Amino acid sequence: xxxxxxxxxxxxxxxxxxxxxxxxxxxxxxxxxxxxxxxxxxxxxxxxxxxxxxxxxxxxxxxxxxxxxxxxxxxxxxxxxxxxxxxxxxxxxxxxxxxxxxxxxxxxxxxxxxxxxxxxxxxxxxxxxxxxxxxxxxxxxxxxxxxxxxxxxxxxxxxxxxxxxxxxxxxxxxxxxxxxxxxxxxxxxxxxxxxxxxxxxxxxxxxxxxxxxxxxxxxxxxxxxxxxxxxxxxxxxxxxxxxxxxxxxxxxxxxxxxxxxxxxxxxxxxxxxxxxxxxxxxxxxxxxxxxxxxxxxxxxxxxxxxxx
Length: 308
Ligand code: PMP
Description:
CATH superfamily of the largest domain: D-amino Acid Aminotransferase, subunit A, domain 2
Bound molecules: 4'-deoxy-4'-aminopyridoxal-5'-phosphate
Radius of gyration: 19 Å
Shape: globular
CATH class of the largest domain: Alpha Beta
Largest sheet: 9 strands, mixed
Number of helices: 7
Structural class: alpha+beta
Number of strands: 17
Number of domains: 2
Order of helices and strands: EEHEEEHHEEEHEEEEHEHEEEHE
Strand content: 25-35%
CATH architecture of the largest domain: Alpha-Beta Barrel
Helix content: 25-40%
Distance between the termini: 34 Å
CATH topology of the largest domain: D-amino Acid Aminotransferase, Chain A, domain 2
């Protein structure tokens, strides 16, 4: 079990975590009618500072997820960032953290719908290290299909859609794999259970486009800039076939949780040499410098928590 937070933002104020409780008839709990975010705070030892990575962009997406669910939180993305910083100051962590905002249908009652329901907001933060092995994952293709935009839009982080992710993740686990790639309805790669996907082949990087039923990932968007502007790579956003991954030179997942996680084997076929490739190693190094606020060009992505 994860470490629990000390505090939660709940019903408009910061309370001890134990007081942040909902009843079993809460609509979101029964129907999955909620949306969430996932942000990281990175501890920079030299500066003794905790930096939250791209919080404004995370909360813009969070509000878009809420909009898809016709929830009005009455707060701007900037206000959500401020609340998050308050929660983090209350927690007072001097280590890497994970931040989980949740907007949920808070009424208790029967009757699935989006209209005429009150929504509520909670935000918590917990210490958090690695989410996935960083020495290379063995991945399979899931027998599940990615939830479709015309069923539950995967472009937002809608809680109910994560049943799909849970199917994908647990089947991979039971099959002895670290993760799975999931195909969309037309048979092209969408993403992992909770991460976007990139591959490198013959000097060109490819990633599924945001219309392939993948989440509009903030890490994905960040990597697109690093790859193009700083590593001088050409990156194509396009439909990717399953067998292209089998013959890729390198491949990796990216996301707030997994950060940049190399894939070294797919369905028992080695990717490249079957070890963490030189390109993704370089990318990881740059990424970790960026998120800890060590790269001047991207310093604005890193929002400090503590006053200096
Ligand atoms: N896809 C899915 C399904 C996810 O849950 C996540 C994690 N939020 C990602 C991709 C990566 O998105 P981000 O980089 O914004 O964390």
